[in-house]
Amino acid sequence: MLILVAKRLTAVVLILLALTAVLFALEQTSTSDPIKTMLGPGASQALVAQKRAELGLDDPIAAQYARYVTDLVHGDLGTSYRTRRAVSADIATFLPATLELALFGLVTAVLLAVAFAVATTLRWPGAGAFRLLLMVGASAPAFLLAIGGIVVFYRELGWLPATGRTDFVDAPTGPTGLLTVDALVHGRPAVLGDALQHLLLPGLAIAVGPAVSIGRVLRSSLVTTLRTDYTRTARAKGLREVEVMRKHVLRNSIGPALSMTGLQVGLMFAGVLVVELIFAWPGLGQYTAQSIPVDDFPAIAGVMLLLGVAYVLINTVVDLLQAAADPRIEA
Amino acid sequence: MRAPLAPPTTALVAEVVDLHVGFTRNGRQVEAVRGLDLQVRAGEVLGLVGESGSGKSVLSLALLGLLPEASQPRTRGVVRVAGIDMLTASPQVRRQVRRDTLGAVFQDPMTSLNPTMRIGRQVAEAAGSGAEALRLLRAVGIPDPERRLGSFPHELSGGLRQRVMIAMAVAGHPALVVADEPTTALDVTVQAQVLALVRRLRDDIGCSVLLITHDLGVAAQVADRVAVMYAGRLAEVGPTAAVLQAPSHPYTVGLMKSRLSLTTDRHRPVQALRGGAPDPADVPPGCGYAPRCPLAMDPCSQTVPDPLPVGTSAHLRACLAEPSRVQDLALTAAPVTAATAVPAQRVDAGWAARVGGIEKTFRVKAGRGRKATLSALRRVSLDVREGESVAIVGESGSGKSTLLRVLAGLEQHERGEVELGRGGRPQMVFQDAGASLTPWLTVGELLDERLRTEGLPRQERRTRALAALAKVGLPEAVYGARASELSGGQRQRVALARATVVPPEVLLCDEPTSALDVSLAATVLNLVQQLRRELGMAVVFVTHDLSVARIVADRIAVMYLGRIVELGDAEEVIRSPKHPYTKALLAAVPDFGVAPPALKGEPASPLSPPTGCAFHPRCPLAVPDCAQPSLDVGLERLRVGADLLLDADSRRVACIRPKEL
Ligand SMILES: Nc1ncnc2c1ncn2[C@@H]1O[C@H](COP(=O)(O)OP(=O)(O)O)[C@@H](O)[C@H]1O
Ligand code: SF4
Ligand code: SF4
Ligand SMILES: [Mg+2]
After folding, report:
1. Residue ranges per structural domain of chain B
2. For labeling, which of A50, A191, B228, B238 is most exposed (least CB within 10 Å)?
3. Which CATH architecture has domain B342-426+504-661?
4. pLDDT band for position B7 (50/70/90)?
5. Rounded to whole angstroms, how far apart are CA atoms B237 and B219?
6. Does A203 reside within a domain?
7. Domain that residue A262 falls in
8. Pair B500, B533: CB distance under 8 Å
9. CATH number at residue A131
10. Which of A236, A241, A326 lies nearest to residue B64, judging by beta carbons?
11. What is the pLDDT of residues B544-567, one digit of tens each?
């Protein structure tokens, strides 16, 4: 297991290096001129030249790349052209909101997927209707779901809020930045309830698609596992059906579903960024949306790098979970 | 000994009355069991025998109350266990019966244990506690049981895994253990151990055992009574001795005659049951065996025979023919015809293939991310003469298939030479013919592929292909079929046709019959013999079955842990084996006699072959010298002092104690 962890971590480092190389290459070949973006179109030749030298833009490419990576390692993602703050500081500001939404979406997706798979496999009553509802939901893209959700649950029914993270102006902002957690820490159940209400629509909008993908994979692997000889052995022992399910079937079925979850996380990032715009969610989606029109390359690259790291780390965790679940998986 | 001949009034632990089980498969009605009556008496071992598809497994699942719901079984009749009808009782009640009264052992110990749960927990689930699990593992003879509690199934050998299954089956003192082909997936020496264990546990615990097997020889060894099933009905049932000595149903006679044993006449074609195994989707009216029965008469196609007593009330048969006609059938043998006798090998023949000093290792995963070296072949030398047939026998993991693959050029070896005669590359036939035939190609295209290498014109290729199909007994229609549309026996024939359509000098066969039913196996063996005779090929035939080896081969090479330990004339090796391992292997072959003495210990792992003579941990003749790391036992002619022993010019044995052999 230790060797497996070491191997996976080496792979992570290599993938991230590749990612930085891609980002760096993009920056080099980008048509927009960072100096112009910074100094404005009217800057003098001399000023531009001085700024270029200052930023090291005249150094050899290799040296520039080395500096870029070294800075990254030290947590320096550069300075945003737009906000003129360190990109890392900007990200620290906007990340918690996105993180909270993404985590909420992921947990919801997994719960929906398990319910979907178990209910349809064991033919629970109501499984058909539940399945239909999910499938219809999953056939629409996240932004349509989001808009539909707003129309129905905010405008028509008025049950749920449609913008932002909270209605409380005095909502706590620390220590974690995750509003639900901070509300608990500060002992404010009203804020917690309100935050969950705000999370519900955007969270569902990003969760339904992945839920169906994960659920389908889990379902088919449940069906396969239920037909295995060892499930028959478990029944032949006279175990209760819940025990058979819990101890023998689920454990042996989660492998493929875990892989699928890892893949879906990437798609969910895309969903989060779009859905944030629709719900005016103060997260990285907003930040990126504002950075793109002004060619704020360091900001965009910072967010991309962060998402890349998150994606790779999550999939590494998935691999390790799989190895833990199945003793036959070797390094 | 618990009442093997007990009167029918003995307490019953299970009773099946007029059982019918049907499924719907691909829209077709499948009648798996069609009116079966059977009783399992307290404390008895009841052997249930029949070819695949005869409904044995469906019966066992019905007894366990575990008929697959997904296949929507339709049932009629009664299956009573501990006073409960397992067909109609609620799921909770059936579960309780499984828990308290029943135990189950299934065919494949590899897939029947949960791969992600430790052995100890799996046994404890059935046993109730960890301490009881440990006691059970010890009781079924698992070495070092404390350590094994923490093992996962894939870390155990097949024999140990089946012992674990048995431990779970006998947990909680069941009244009946249902064992469905518990030894089919195991090597003969391990099979003998497991059968001995089943019998011992029955004696200790006093439970009944329903032992399902396709091999009459296995049932003969441990069963008090034998029931023979055909096409979902009972053909015959009675005390083991009565059924074996006076079989009174033509199907039982057919099974016994098509069964290869160490005394089967080598100079006749192996007797095969006519036709294929029963197809439960297409059962004839009347007696199900009629299409294959040599005694079939007019009434047989209309009247379904019921089991009626023959002589003693304990022996029942379901057949319309006179018992005397069945007895006559048992006494007739297939005629020897000049065309079928296999020619004796030519003594002056040159060699067709030879390997010398072959060494082959594999790098394998050894757990926890470590790699280990597995010695598959350890300096193996063998000459195959022109037109000769050599059988390589040994348990799984002994290196038989690897040697064959080296010969075929499919595997790189580290040291030693492979030389082929004039004929060029040998052709190969595998155990799983289905998997070795490209699924999207038709049989015609498969054969054409081989013929194109000969540069023949298209029309001639077709003619040759059809001729090859005819030679293996397949109709022309097969030319356009794909592998998935063929039965197992047909696929094996296609594989043989492909291998011989351009006759090779050497034909390599890797267990081509071990996945087939007795009757199919017999026809494939006959076919190999016939092709060999007609095409003058040499054949190297890998098998774990000594009776098969004796039939097909002129010479037998016995392998143990990557070495040939004995080599000699087939008949001679079987008649008077010399090497202790050959002796053990022969003793473990199940037959209609008494139970064989089980060889101690598990086959050692090729990951760490024992030092010196690798057989020493299991060898009854071993002396301390046998374990010497510096000892290198080569294959030697048998001699005592300066004298060569009988038939020593052909016999070679790897043992340092030739005098004692
Ligand atoms: N779940 C199932 N669905 C459809 N057909 C089945 C099912 N189980 C068994 N059968 C069919 O019933 C017949 C008898 O099968 P089985 O009891 O497994 O025979 P045996 O154990 O004697 O080889 C076979 O043709 C088999 O294909
Ligand atoms: S009833 Fe007829 S067909 Fe059936 S086994 Fe007897 S003789 Fe053969
Ligand atoms: S060398 Fe020793 S251990 Fe090996 S077979 Fe001969 S007597 Fe047995
Ligand atoms: Mg079966």
Report:
1. 247-336, 342-426+504-661
2. A50
3. 3-Layer(aba) Sandwich (3.40)
4. very low
5. 12
6. yes
7. 94-284
8. no
9. 1.10.3720
10. A236
11. 888 889 989 999 999 999 999 999
What is the arithmetic mean of pLDDT over B228-237? 94
pLDDT (tens digit per residue) in B134-184:
999 988 888 888 888 998 988 888 888 998 999 999 998 999 999 999 988
Look-up: residue for tokens 């219809």?
Answer: A136
Residues sharing a CB contact under 8 Å with residue B26, sequence separation 6 or more, in sequence order: none
CB atoms under 10 Å from CB of B284, counted, come to: 15
Separation CA B102–CA B89 (nearest Å):
15
Q: Are B203 and B222 in contact (CB under 8 A)?
A: no
Kindly state whether residue A313 falls inside one of the protein's structural domains.
Answer: no
Whole-model pTM: value is 0.80
What are the pLDDT digits (tens) for B356-410?
A: 999 998 887 655 556 778 888 988 999 998 889 999 998 877 888 899 999 988 8
Structure tokens at B279: 């197809």
> DSSP class of residue B643?
E
Mean pLDDT value of segment B183-201: 85
CA dihedral A215, A216, A221, A222 (to 10 degrees): 60
Instruction: Examine residue A89 and state whether it is found in any structural domain, yes or no.
Output: no
Query: In Å, how far from its chain's centre is CA B326?
Result: 27
Residues 6+ apart with CB under 8 A from A15: A308, A312
Count Cβ–Cβ pairs < 8 Å, chain A vs chain B: 85
CA nearest to A297, candidates A98, A97, A32: A32
Alpha helices (runs of H) in B53-143, residue ranges in sequence order: 56-64, 91-100, 109-112, 119-127, 130-139
Q: Does A170 touch chain B (CB under 8 A)?
A: no
In one-letter notation, the amino acid at residue B657 is R
Q: Which residues line ligand 2 (CB under 6 A)?
A: B 250, 287, 289-290, 293, 295-297, 300, 305, 319-321
Domain presence at residue A246: yes
* Cα dihedral A153/A157/A161/A167 (nearest 10): -170
Confidence of residue A65 (pLDDT cuts 50, 70, 90): confident
Domain count, chain A: 1
Closest Cα in chain A, distance from residue B65 (Å):
9
